[in-house]
Amino acid sequence: MKDKEIPIYRGLPLPDRVQKEDGQAQQDIEKFLLYMRKRHSVREYSTRAVPEPIIKAAIEAAGTAPSGANRQPWHFVAVSSEEMKHKIRLAAEEEEKTFYAGGAGDEWLAALEPIGTGASKPHLTDAPWLIIVFAQRYGLSKSGDKRKNYYVPESVGIAMGVLITALHHAGLVCLEHTPNPMKSLGRLCGRPANEKPVMILPVGYPTGEATVPEVAKIKKTISEIMTVFND
């Protein structure tokens, strides 16, 4: 049955054009590449505050991401409350204790060893903001009926990539923490049953002594990540 809340297709003239000459495009993309190479996942956060409008703009940028059937199956919860961050940290560390005590398996734990992670998550309270990303497994119409969402993991993954890039563009750092499974996050954040927490991003500025794992600077070469077919 056709969803009456879905509008019919009407084409609009392309509202924005940002195309460039080849030379300018090459110059700009190389600058962007150099800038993105300066993006790092950071665990040590300074006490410097981050104004809420910066966080809001970054989340709005994430909301521009493409999604399956334009369902936009995501929700972002931004948290600066110290009490709330403390509750989230306690819940996360409880899950992580099980994970690092063997729940993850030896192979997974061995893969994480060069990253230097552990069950303690001080960054969840040190960072001035936490952004919790929720994936909407299904949508709800205005009348409360379930509505299927399409390509949810792919759509939310694209939005998170835009969000991380936007935060970097604002001069901020973040850390990609994936709840495992942290079902309590939905309750803590007051989110409905159709939403699943998929990532927590501590966001802020790095301390003067912040470090990153040496292995994190080792990236695959372009020949390892790209295959070209041309005439």
Report on this model:
With 231 residues, the chain is α+β, with helices and mostly antiparallel strands. It has a single domain (44-207), classed as 3-Layer(aba) Sandwich (NADH Oxidase). The chain has eight helices and six strands. Strands 1-2-6-5 form a four-stranded antiparallel β-sheet. The protein has a two-stranded antiparallel ribbon with strand order 3-4. Helix 2 (52-62) packs antiparallel against helix 6. The chain is globular and about 55 Å long. The chain starts with 21 loop residues before the first helix and ends in a 6-residue tail after the last helix.
What features would you highlight for this structure?
alpha+beta; NADH Oxidase; two-stranded antiparallel ribbon; 4-stranded antiparallel beta sheet; globular; 8 helices; 231 residues; 37% helix; 14% strand
- Rounded mean pLDDT is 94
One letter per element, helices H and strands E, the order comes to HHEHHHEEEHEHEH
Number of strands: 6
Please give the share of residues in helix. 25-40%
- What is the CATH class designation? Alpha Beta
Q: Architecture, according to CATH?
A: 3-Layer(aba) Sandwich
CATH superfamily annotation: NADH Oxidase
- Report the sheet with the most strands, covering strand number, pairing sense and barrel closure: 4 strands, antiparallel
CATH fold assignment: NADH Oxidase
Strand neighbour order, sheet with most strands: 1-2-6-5
Envelope shape: globular
Oligomer: single chain
Distance between the termini: 46 Å
Structure described in brief:
With 231 residues, the protein is of the alpha+beta class. Helices cover 37% and strands 14% of the residues. It has a single domain (44-207), classed as 3-Layer(aba) Sandwich (NADH Oxidase).
